[in-house]
Design brief:
Blueprint (H helix, E strand, L loop, with lengths): L25 E6 L3 H10 L5 E8 L2 H11 L3 E4 L6 H6 L6 E4 L6 H10 L3 E5 L6 H14 L3 E4 L6 H12 L5 E9 L19 H5 L1 H11 L4 E8 L5 E9 L5 E7 L8 E5 L2 E6 L7 E6 L4 E5 L8 H12 L10 H18 L9
Parallel strand pairs: 1-2, 1-4, 2-3, 4-5, 5-6, 7-10
Antiparallel strand pairs: 7-11, 8-9, 9-10, 11-12, 12-13, 13-14
Helix pairs in contact: 4-5, 5-10
């Protein structure tokens, strides 16, 4: 069986250090100042060839305090009817932007960034729906600019090793995969996790991680059956997906904003199985059992918070003139959004962006 997800360039290097420079320094702009922007900015600062150049937010105090805290040279904010991100995109010195806004704003902001001539790393979920995703991909290709969805887990050494084991034949033929991710998120109708206008719900926020285990070991499915709980605001607070494959394999994926789970993944084959330890989006150990024999454990460390591997791939691709990553190709983002569109159709979830 060949690998279903390409191996990152970094894996072929002797030191495999994501901090080491791979070319000219890129000047980064970060759009939004929430929790994920803070984490990614901290890891971005570890790259030898990354300059934390500018950040934007709606408010001046937020933009300036974020810039000071994380070492950005410039800050932009909403003023005189112009959005802070528009001011950042008008700065000709910015080479690449990281978009960390709520899902429903991705299409508008990424489109503006591409039209301003900027390369883009966009936080997942890539967009609200497949229509938006396809439009962004078309514009990026027309403009010959780099664009990638920020599914950082694809680039982690532990995830790559899990996919390598599954593809190697050591487990035999893979027949089923299970993966879960959940946490009780405090409810607030204005929180991005719960707000329908922001694309709230478990599906768009966290299902990409359980799905990654299925895609990385079995590929995209031929059938999807979905159940879930939809709250009074019309967003899914929990969902369970069953993926079906023409060769008979299945995957069961659970995502929840209501309950803690073990956050584990299992890949089961005709000769043995693999399990992840630590959260499925950043495994720290892989346990492999062949038949009824002894278990083998493989431990993993990460540099920074783990976003460094993704950031190295983006940086290297831009430096080398690539317009998409072979590890996280744009077609996979479109396929994911199509799958999510189908799930939402089964669950009865719609968002304001769908009407545009």
């Amino acid at each position: 069986m060949s690998a279903l997800i390409a191996t990152p360039w970094l894996s072929s290097q002797s030191d495999q250090d994501p901090q080491s420079a791979t070319g000219r320094t890129l000047r980064w702009g970060v759009i939004a100042t929430g929790g994920i922007a803070r984490s990614v900015s901290q890891d971005l600062a570890l790259l030898a060839d990354a300059e934390l150049y500018a950040v934007s937010s709606r408010g001046q105090d937020t933009a300036e305090s974020f810039a000071a805290a994380y070492g950005f040279g410039r800050s932009y904010w909403d003023d005189d009817g112009v959005h802070g991100y528009q001011r950042l995109l008008a700065d000709e010195a910015v080479d690449v932007v990281y978009v960390a806004t709520p899902h429903a704003q991705h299409h508008q902001i990424v489109l503006a960034a591409l039209n301003a001539g900027k390369h883009v790393l966009c936080e997942k979920a890539f967009t609200i729906n497949a229509r938006e995703a396809s439009e962004l991909v078309a514009v990026a290709r027309e403009q010959k600019l780099f664009l990638m969805e920020a599914v950082w887990s694809r680039f982690l050494p532990s995830m790559q090793r899990a996919f390598e084991i599954a593809a190697s034949g050591e487990l035999g033929d893979v027949h089923w995969v299970t993966a879960d991710l959940g946490f009780p998120a405090p409810y607030s109708p204005t929180s991005r996790l719960w707000a329908r206008q922001d694309g709230g719900g478990a599906l768009l926020d966290i299902t990409v991680y359980p799905l990654l285990w299925a895609v990385g070991t079995l590929g995209f499915p031929q059938t999807v059956s979905a159940t879930g709980f939809i709250n009074d605001d019309g967003v899914d607070s929990q969902n369970a997906l069953t993926l079906g494959y023409n060769h008979g394999a299945q995957a069961q994926l659970t995502s929840s904003l209501l309950a803690h789970g073990p956050r584990t993944a299992t890949v089961a084959g005709s000769l043995g199985y693999l399990q992840s330890l630590g959260s499925i989006n950043n495994p720290r150990e892989l346990v492999v059992g062949i038949g009824l024999g002894e278990l083998r454990t493989e431990p993993f460390d990460v540099v920074g918070r783990g976003y460094t591997y993704e950031l190295r791939e983006v940086t290297r691709c831009i430096q080398q003139g690539l317009t998409e990553s072979p590890v996280m190709p744009l077609e996979d983002s479109i396929k994911t959004m199509r799958l999510f569109d189908g799930v939402r159709g089964q669950l009865g979830v719609s968002y304001p962006n769908d009407a545009h």
